[in-house]
Amino acid sequence: MDQIWKWWAKLPKWIRDTIQVVMAMTILLIIYDLAVPPMTHKPYSMSTLISFPFQVILGFIVVAVYNYFKARSQAKEKAAKERAAEVERLKKEQQTKQHSENLKRNQANGAKQQDR
């Protein structure tokens, strides 16, 4: 059982999210397919049994594509934020360096003027 959880943790997040959503959708679809015919007083049809696997497969494909592109766009946003933070850090370093250079220059100019 421990190996299953290790395997599950190794899967990309978008695949784990897809499997979780599709499993929930499948359970709801089973409940719907079992509950609706008795409520509507219609018999169970063979088309329901035939279409069920296709509905699950189509749902898996649609949710997987959505989750894949969502994960990819989140990764791009994260990378852009990291780049922006790096640029901001470099600007602050440059400002600090420039400030210290200006301070040294001002002190040197002040010392020259006092010597005169």
Question: Can you describe this structure?
Answer:
- The chain has 116 residues and is mostly helical.
- The protein has one domain.
- Helix content is 92%, strand content 0%.
- It has three helices and no strands.
- Helix 2 runs antiparallel to helix 3.
- The chain is rod-shaped, with a radius of gyration of 31 Å.
- The mean pLDDT is 88.
- Keywords: Membrane, Transmembrane, Transmembrane helix.
What is the CA-atom radius of gyration, in angstroms?
Answer: 31 Å
What's the main sheet like?
Answer: none
Query: Helix amount, in percent?
Result: over 70%
Give the beta-strand count. Answer: 0
CA-based shape = rod-shaped
Oligomer state equals: single chain
Tally of individual domains: 1
Structural class: mainly alpha
Summed up, the helix count is: 3
Transmembrane segments: 21-40, 52-69
Biased composition (Basic and acidic residues): 85-104
Region (Disordered): 85-116
Biased composition (Polar residues): 105-116
